[in-house]
Amino acid sequence: xxxxxxxxxxxxxxxxxxxxxxxxxxxxxxxxxxxxxxxxxxxxxxxxxxxxxxxxxxxxxxxxxxxxxxxxxxxxxxxxxxxxxxxxxxxxxxxxxxxxxxxxxxxxxxxxxxxxxxxxxxxxxxxxxxxxxxxxxxxxxxxxxxxxxxxxxxxxxxxxxxxxxxxxxxxxxxxxxxxxxxxxxxxxxxxxxxxxxxxxxxxxxxxxxxxxxxxxxxxxxxxxxxxxxxxxxxxxxxxxxxxxxxxxxxxx
Length: 252
Ligand SMILES: C[S@@+](CC[C@H](N)C(=O)[O-])C[C@H]1O[C@@H](n2cnc3c(N)ncnc32)[C@H](O)[C@@H]1O
Description:
Layout: H1 18-29, E1 33-36, H2 44-49, E2 54-58, H3 61-71, H4 76-80, E3 82-86, E4 98-103, H5 114-127, E5 128-139, E6 151-161, E7 167-178, E8 183-194, E9 197-209, H6 213-221, E10 225-231, E11 244-251
The structure holds S-adenosylmethionine (SAM).
């Protein structure tokens, strides 16, 4: 089984706090919205249900399968608001331009090199209307990455219950880091339980790029954007006080 089917089991605050923020922005901007790396539609779907005309692009067909299964259960009106695209956010060319483009939930950190990051930002720039807005989120390292980051013990990220009644847990192991490439290597272990007995276990490994504030600001501004607002959380917490980097940008 691939872990796309377990993605929506995540019940951490970070998994819901951003939805009203993006909905509010999309509503105020009006027009067409594009979510890059939309995954299972965690944000795409609630926006479409609120009347936002939204395109969701992702390169994982298994994530998009989960999204499409959820979309098929929506009202016809909401379904018409969602347009899915199987594609790579570093290399896409659509016939539409958008009033609002966003890359939520740290997906930009999947791009492992400056080259890929710049290609993605260049695609965003080309697809954004002149008066449009672009929002990007990456997590903020609590301090300079070093040995302290490694933790080979299993850390429980979340525990929740699936529709069928099975309990699911996800644990992470912070395996390694690379200061030169600015990469973090993490293993995930998903465990499924029925009536308190373990029935299945899945393993997944990810590599995520990490950014300090000035690195990401430089990438954004060198790609033809002005950073208009910066937040540290979705309620408007100042960037120096929050856990995240959220940059609200426009074309320079
Ligand atoms: C953490 S999930 C975020 C999904 C969704 N936006 C959300 O907020 O729940 C990261 C997603 O990024 C997608 N992704 C990673 N690199 C990508 C790329 N180069 N092009 C398109 N999608 C990509 C993955 O397939 C995955 O669905």
